[in-house]
Amino acid sequence: MILVTGGTGFLGAELLKQLTDKGLAVRALKREKSNIPPLVQDNTLIEWFDADINEPATLEEAFEGIAQVYHCAAFVSLSSKHKKQLFHVNIDGTSNLVNLCIENNCRLLHVSSVAALGLAKKGKQIAEKDFWEYDAKAHAYGLSKYEGEMEVWRGINEGLNAVIVNPSVIIGKNAGFEGSGAIFKLVKNGFPFYTNGASGFVAVEDVAKSMILLMDAEVSGERYIISAGNIHYKDLFTAIANGFGVKAPAKEAKPWMLGIAWRALRFAALFSRQEPSITKDTATSSITLSYYKNNKVIEQTGITFKPVRECITEITQYLK
């Protein structure tokens, strides 16, 4: 049987859909008060199991009869104030899953992130062989995903049968305006600025498909970047604006402007008690040029990725 952590999340729900579309029975972990996404709500092939990856005692029963584990659960935030929770879930929680996979002789597919990879050298693309040069001052989310991945490598050294995927920014219509969908909401509402940065993007359906292909492949102790293509934020924002039929951002937000913005919003948050829309980490990420290679996963699985611009068109048409 298959176990999926983070089954109520954006990626986890898509993975559950694809697994059950193949007629596979799946046990999916969720927290007691979590809502099951509409995408998989009435799916009779899914056995929902209430457990917390940070409480090993609740996990042990979930591993009964399990041969494969997809670890999608994670805490995502680019706010430094969530550092403790990021480390608790993304590092300690992953460590618990690794230990139970070793004890129960399960094959593990761990969802890491491109945030756990090395920074790009000028004019170069980031590949799987690039490891992040440890920096304690790096943003907390990236640090938590790096350390979480190190737990999986630790397990591999102890005999764990595992493979790691490092998705770039995952997009899809079912995100709505949350998570990566916040970018679409920002542009749709007439945001006038763009930043001089770039990153990789990939459809959630292709991430889930890649994961299933890699789980079934005879490969272990490897990591794979899952990314459809790289796009500059100016081009991304323009494509989204065109999809919504609104004016594209035409003003470049300079680094010094972003510096003032995140500081001002942090100060305002002290009084409003709301999360600032721009943090120091998001400001830094928005002006970083990060290009990712995807040839390794293509060679391993033969997958054909949906082009990023095609994804944007589909998402904007749906969100209209």
TrEMBL record:
<dbReference type="GO" id="GO:0005737">
    <property type="term" value="C:cytoplasm"/>
</dbReference>
<dbReference type="InterPro" id="IPR036291">
    <property type="entry name" value="NAD(P)-bd_dom_sf"/>
</dbReference>
<dbReference type="InterPro" id="IPR051783">
    <property type="entry name" value="NAD(P)-dependent_oxidoreduct"/>
</dbReference>
<dbReference type="InterPro" id="IPR001509">
    <property type="entry name" value="Epimerase_deHydtase"/>
</dbReference>
<feature type="domain" description="NAD-dependent epimerase/dehydratase">
    <location>
        <begin position="2"/>
        <end position="226"/>
    </location>
</feature>
<dbReference type="Pfam" id="PF01370">
    <property type="entry name" value="Epimerase"/>
</dbReference>
<protein>
    <submittedName>
        <fullName>NAD-dependent epimerase/dehydratase family protein</fullName>
    </submittedName>
</protein>
<dbReference type="GO" id="GO:0004029">
    <property type="term" value="F:aldehyde dehydrogenase (NAD+) activity"/>
</dbReference>
